[in-house]
Amino acid sequence: MKRHHLSTYIFVGLILGVIAGYLINIYIPPGARNKEIADGFSVIADVFLRLIKMVIAPLVFSGIVTGMTNSDGPRELGRIGGKAMLWFVVASFVSLGLGMTLSNLYGLGDGVKMPHSGVPVEFNGAVFSMKTMVSKIVPQSIAQAMAQNEIMAILLFSVFFGFGLSAVCKANGTKALVPVLEEVFQVMMKMARYVMYFAPIGVFAAVTSAIAQHGISVLLVYGKFVGGVYSGFLMLGVLIMCAGYAFLGRKVFELIRSLREPLLVGFSTASSEAALPKLLERLEKFGVPRKISTFILPLAYSFNLDGAMMYQAFATIFLVQAYHIDVTVSQQIGMLLVMLIASKGSAGVPRGSLVILTAMLPTFGIPVEGVVLLLAVDIFVDMGRTVTNLLGNGVAAAALAKWESKHLPSDVPQPGTAPAPHAPSLPTTPIEHPTGLASNQTAMH
């Protein structure tokens, strides 16, 4: 099933869920019978959530380990890698901070009725105590951590395993285990895509259950949420352009014009992977050396997902507000920082933002049932999220090239013109990513 076809089916599932839920709400008023029917649809949505959770642990583990063993290490990355990581970290904090601020100001989740898990909803603030943090981060047993989807413990074990495997591979001069783990990662990726094929059914069931119990007014929540997120994307895009202006001056406007085509591809397909070849081509024509663009972009696809970071902030605070959970600002910051770290193991995962939310929310005592409802409008949010990711990555590559070389060619060809003589044509062979992954499809769109 192609990506755009899946999005179409999810949209169809949303529409059918609205119709079915409305009919149930009208002809079977809220009561015991209504709740019984709604609970039946809720079970279907719960199965979909469990399928997502099923692949999280092996996916994160294999993704982090293979990424570490196929990189050259921090010393070999040199100045460009250090500058890139500094840029990415600052951009991630700005994205999360802006998203958290706007979501609190908008109050999009206030007054929303969400499906509950059947237990009292209370924020698990103890997760930020020293004792609890240690127990969550340092696993007694990696098998237990994986069985319970303790994502922070899995991250720590994966990092240690990656360091150990890299040392063994270097000492022995072989990488016998690395190809196996790469195959595991590819298998988990394939399984994640298979699970997403059930997304239309999960969305249909979740929307039907919600509207059957709470009525058609719940649809207003979707419009407010999408509008709020897009206003955040717009503000973040302006900040990204301002950062580019600090390095490139007025050339940043020429860069944006040059990137129109890959941005349009990303918006129409909601796929960063589909826009990558055109993005590389436009950056090279703009004057970014290929050695920088082919290094920065794959790295950025894992660590510079500005739109995805902002969306995670919006979605998390939305669910906190919808479930009427009392969370302080410092606890919100802690939550988002944990998600920031956890998201680095989800590069290339289909709709990775929602996967990370599903994995992390139970850690803080937040029900995950609302994630399925967010998936219903994710097809709309995904387009803006992808464009914001691509814009951030394109500006980052150009700014870092200027930072590294102190200048860019003054003759900037416009889109559609022939490349400058110094700019060789793009290779036709697949680009080797520094992480060893052929091309990170950013489902953390």
TrEMBL record:
Membrane topology classification: Multi-pass membrane protein
Keywords: Cell membrane, Membrane, Transmembrane, Transmembrane helix, Transport
GO cellular component: plasma membrane
Coiled coil location: none
Region annotated Disordered, chain positions: 408-445
Compartments, as annotated in UniProt: Cell membrane
Superkingdom, natural source: Bacteria
UniProt cross-references to PANTHER family, sorted A to Z: PROTON/GLUTAMATE-ASPARTATE SYMPORTER, PROTON_GLUTAMATE-ASPARTATE SYMPORTER
Record's protein name: C4-dicarboxylate ABC transporter
Origin species: Pandoraea anhela
Lineage start: Bacteria, Pseudomonadati, Pseudomonadota, Betaproteobacteria, Burkholderiales
